[in-house]
Design goal:
This protein has five helices and three strands. By secondary structure, it is of the alpha+beta class. It has a single domain, classed as GIY-YIG endonuclease (3-Layer(aba) Sandwich), CATH 3.40.1440.10. Strands 2-1-3 form a three-stranded antiparallel β-sheet, with helices on both faces. The longest helix has 12 residues.
């Protein structure tokens, strides 16, 4: 089963959140709607700016864990490389 590591943001170079899910459409919708309390709803991180697929949930969890410990410039560079305008990717995945 595929799993995904994703990054949510409010704006370019603003606060970001790194997460993992098996259903990126549902999870991005939950963040956008503020369904679950936490960091993303507190800071209104509603834009899906990065998403990468992994073959297994174990691989995705390991990647998420690694990314959460990266320096911030590494995470923003990752988004810059894949999504230079920091566009919201959600409309393209629904």
């Amino acid at each position: 089963m595929a799993a995904y590591v994703y990054i949510m943001a409010k704006r370019r170079y603003g606060a970001i959140y790194v997460g993992v899910t098996s259903d990126p459409v549902r999870r991005a919708w939950e963040h956008r709607e503020g369904i679950l309390p936490g960091f993303t709803s507190k800071y209104r991180l509603h834009e899906l700016v990065y998403c990468e697929m992994h073959e297994s949930i174990t691989d995705a969890i390991q990647r998420e864990h690694n990314m959460k410990h990266w320096p911030r410039p590494w995470k923003t560079a990752l988004v810059d490389k894949m999504n230079p305008a920091w566009d919201d990717l959600y409309p393209g995945i629904i």
